[in-house]
Amino acid sequence: MEQSKVNQFMFLQVVTVTLLLTTLNAEAQIAIDELQEKNGIYYNKNKPYTGTVNLCDCTECGCSGKAEMKNGKFHGSYSYGDEYGSTSGTYKDGKKHGEWTEENGDEKGITEITVTNYKDGVLQNSKTLQAMDYYKGQLAKCSGKKNEQCATIMYQLGTAQYSQAYIGGNFSPAMQTFQQLLKEYPNSQYAPSVKQMLGQIKIASLPPEQQQAAQMQLTIDLYKEQLAECSKKKNDQCAVIMYQLGAIYYSQEASAGKQDFPMATQMFQQLLKEYPRYGESVKQMLEQQKALREQEEQQRKQAAQQKALREQEKQQREQAAQQKAQQKIEQQQQQAAQMQQNIDSYKERLAKCDKQCDLIMYQLGGAYYSQAAASVGKQDYSLAIQMYQQLLKEYPESQYAQIAKQTLGQIKIAALPPEQQQAARMQLTIDSYKEQFAKCSNQCDLIMYQLGNTYYSQAMSAGKQDYSLAIQTFQQLLKEYPESRYAQSV
Q1: Alpha-helical regions (H) of 190-278
Q2: CA dist., res. 179 & res. 110, Å (int)
């Protein structure tokens, strides 16, 4: 059985045991919620209440507490505890009187104790101590004495040491205190809890994969010991312990994959024989476990189906990725073949050309450039460079010469470190505008305007804020083309 299922089983066990305990405690003292409070006096059936009152008795809520009342007022001992700590002391005629202790802590246990003294409800003094310092001081007062109060103090000290060990990792002080408690007070009410914590210390030292089984065996041993102690009493508390032991056997056997549950069956049969009135509770628990097993089986099937579906989806994704990769390879191969075909065609035409040879040369250089750009790995533009340089040499005045220069510049820029490319690209643009302006016969104002803007951008990106070249170019534009629409923008 998976850990989550064991936990679910244990939850069902606790719920059912709680129902049993509720039945057993039908004769419990009156709860404070059942009393009517008026002007600080608590009434029961219109009479001031005298006796013990339950402040809280809720396992699920994590709280417990009892107090004594006389004539409708708190009078005598008072104790209350919940997950945040506990408070205990004495009332006298509805007022706090004598020493009160307040224990505070966190999820790991009590960390500090506040001791406050009252006289007829009036605060006299208060001090806060570390929990272990307080318990050690109280235990020192027990020297030479043996009573239940001293056992309680020893238990509180051991519990504080046990909690601190989860932070520091040293369980030795807690083990020594607990072992002393079992030795001096073997029949104390705290003995079962102490044995369980000693068992937990031992379990914590085991490898993780062994701890669950060891925890379950520890619980079984504790219940068996409790059952042996109460077997002669034959009271309802024995029935609860018997039920808990049977439930733990059931969980252990279910974890081991057994289907007949011999130990659990034997324990439940003994419970039904000795305490037949709990038959319905046992039946309810067994039905819950049957439903749980069916749910587990259904979940296992669903998990297997989901796993198979995920595997199928994974295979489909892998196949789609392979197909896409294959299509890309085929597409690249087709493009490469087409590029080579174009190159061969341009080379053949160039070899025979008697006119527009500059165009063919430009097209061949472009085809070489595209072939290099599409290649995998290091890109070799040498053939494109060679062809563009031949174009510039043989046809320097061609309309394609300027584009060839731009492309050669771009190839050169691409070989530079990334941090240098922007500045080089801007300089290339400036050189191109300057050359166009030197040869221009129309739209010279536009070229001059573009050159001035590029100078401006170059100064901005350089961070030097030197706009002299931009100013000079814009002033020349205003002087030579005062009527140009670009002059208005300047």
Answers
A1: 191-204, 208-230, 236-255, 262-274
A2: 20
E strands along 59-164, which residues?
A: 63-70, 73-82, 85-92, 95-96, 98-106, 109-119, 122-130
Output the pTM of the full model.
Answer: 0.41
- For 151, list phi and psi in degrees, rounded to 5: -65, -40
Q: Answer yes or no: are the C-beta atoms of 439 and 428 closer than 8 Å.
A: no
Low-confidence residues in the chain, pLDDT < 70: 1-29, 57-61, 106-109, 166-168, 258-260, 464
Spatial distance between the Cα atoms of 202 and 214, rounded to a whole number of angstroms: 9
Q: How many CB atoms lie within 10 A of CB 339?
A: 18
In this structure, are residues 406 and 428 in contact, taking their beta carbons and an 8 Å threshold?
yes
Task: Give the pLDDT of residue 372.
Answer: 86
Please state the separation of Cα 34 from the chain's center in Å.
44
pLDDT at 1: 40
CA–CA dist 84, 64 (Å, integer): 12
Q: What is the pLDDT of residues 213-241, one digit of tens each?
A: 888 888 888 888 888 877 777 777 788 88
pLDDT value at residue 2:
43
Q: What angle, 0 to 180 degrees and rounded to 10, lies between the N-to-C axes of helices 262-274 and 236-255? A: 160
Q: How far is CA 6 from CA 100, 158, 249, 255, in A?
A: 42, 30, 12, 8
* Residues written for the chain: 490
Helix (H, G, I), strand (E, B) or coil at 238: helix
Question: How does DSSP assign 11-40, residue by residue?
Answer: HHHHHHHHHHHHHHGGGPPEEGGGSEEETT
Decide if 272 contacts 278 (C-beta within 8 A): yes
Both tokens assigned to 472 = 């000079």
How far apart CA 80 and CA 66 sit, in angstroms, is 7
Token pair in block for residue 417: 């470190």
d(CA 271, CA 180): 35
| Nearest residue to 399 via CA among 454, 364, 361 | 361
Residue 82: how many other CB atoms lie within 10 Å: 14
Whether 104 and 86 have beta carbons less than 8 Å apart is answered as no
The tokens describing 370, both together, are 């595209």
Rounded Cα gap, residues 86 and 247, in angstroms: 32
| pLDDT tens, residue by residue, 396-413 | 888 898 888 888 888 888
- The closest of 171, 190, 230, 214 to 24, measured between CA atoms, is 230
Contact assessment for residue 486 and residue 449, using Cβ atoms and an 8 Å cutoff: yes
Listed in sequence order, the residues at least 6 apart from 116 whose beta carbon sits closer than 8 Å to its beta carbon are 99, 100, 101, 102, 123, 125, 126
Specify which residues 86 forms β-bridges with: 81, 103
